[in-house]
Amino acid sequence: MSTALPFQFLVTSLLLFLGIIYRARTGGRPPGLPPGPPGLPFLGNALQLPSKDAYKTFTKWGKQYGPIVAVKVFSQSLIIINSVKLAADLLNKSSSSTSFRITRRMVQLSGFDRSIPHLQPTTEFNKSRQYTKMALGAIEMTQYEPEHQRRALRLVIKLAQNPKNIYNEIGVWVALGFEHIAYGTDDEEDASGFVEMGRHALAIFTAASDPMIVWAVDVLPFLRHFPSWLPGMSFKRKAREWKRVLRDILNKPFHHAVRKINAGLTSQCLISRVAESHSLDSLDEDDLVILKNAAMNIYIGGFDTMTSIVASFYLAMVLHPEAQTRGQQEVDSVTGRSRLPTFADRPNLPYVDCIMKEVMRWAIPTPFLFPHVQDPTSDAMVDGVFVPRGSLLIVNTGGIFEDPKIYANPLQFWPERFHDKNLLDPLSIAFGYARRQCTGIHFVEKRLWITIATTLATLNICPPTENNSRMPKAEWTDGPVRLPLTYDAKFNVRTPALLET
Ligand code: HEM
């Protein structure tokens, strides 16, 4: 029996226990909190929490109660921010007190609490991000430009060869790209089985962390002290099994990379950069764990998000041939169809930039992730807003990207809107805030841009059938990271010679 319970069911059954375990201090709405939907005693707004498309409900509440909305789930305050300015004030200006993360028991039990998204802002957090920067920093990503170009070409070749399995091709391409950056693994090698292990580890990470999946032990932490053979304690066995998967993905690719470094065989990667600057032998056991987690986080943080945004770009091209044609014309005018575009062409390819911004806005993979948390030990007052200690601070990025006051006809895919230089650049907020800003931001800006430019130069992306009978829809899955629903497309090669360069 699984102990991951559907939220509504869990809430209802917990009513029986609440009288005993609930602390009376959490009864009403504390004075000074921003407005929000009225809740029930004890439960707060738990029953109003959406089980699907949460960001749309957050937007609705924003229209009803204003740009900042407070709701309560049991004793947990959620502050939902529907305004770019308030998000910057709360999360950038007050970052020293708003950069915490929520502690989830299932995350702790399975060992994922040492991965960057779950680390509290401590020395370990700083070290972990520092390591990550050694592979993904702005300078490193600029040095990596030739590799980005090579890998973008590899994807278009793969899609042209095997258009039947778009998701698999993109997913394997994304994973091998991360394996190269983290562990220096060459091309198609994947000798440590990283791609498969990564998929497994990410599924676990998501199950343990998804705010919409409530584990019994997260609500009733004392359950962790009960023996695992008791009925309803299957979460303990699950956590033990998950820990084993985590141990494998932390160690196997790492040891493979170290063996290659020692044999002088590896290309530049996170592990080799650390080895050059510190010597791996000088790292103590704790530092090694931090380094292994930093390397693994490149996959955990990047896999679904990157797969999603690249798949959404191809979807946009199927659905909007006019944007595709305009992009192709711009690229052709610079390359003369005699060579592939490079990063040096970027200043002359403004429409490719517009497409990248519009894909990010129209199909943001993370409409409201990951919530920051106000310092659990102190309340705050920011711009007259009272933020109780330990509140979850949720920026409704998906809602901001669909706000017609910012973007006219927001549901329409229309890259031309970004010719207006005053329009909010989606990339300026899509990757989050301050100390917690996405560690993959420079990677995405480079890899996504060159993938778009290379695709426009080489492929015609078309609906799967001539009569448009199986036209894909602009629809995404629900979940912490959303992906476009599976679709088919044809990838016809425009200039075969370019695929041979
Ligand atoms: C389109 C692609 C991506 C989007 C939209 C995205 C978005 C985000 C967002 C919104 C956050 C939370 C920031 C905050 O809390 O303020 C985040 C965190 C994170 N991202 Fe990304 N991301 C993307 C790709 C990547 C890639 C490619 C990597 C790694 C190579 C990555 C690694 C991470 C990590 C490790 C964190 C946790 C940072 C922390 O908690 O300190 N992401 N990302």
TrEMBL record:
Its main location: membrane. Keywords: Heme, Iron, Membrane, Metal-binding, Monooxygenase, Oxidoreductase, Signal, Transmembrane, Transmembrane helix. It is a single-pass membrane protein. Pathway: Secondary metabolite biosynthesis. Residues 1-26 form the signal peptide. Its cofactor is heme. Belongs to the cytochrome P450 family. Heme binds at residue 438. One of its GO terms (cellular component) is membrane. It is found in: Membrane. The keyword Cytoplasm does not apply. It comes from Phanerochaete sordida. This is Cytochrome P450. The keyword Aminoacyl-tRNA synthetase does not apply.
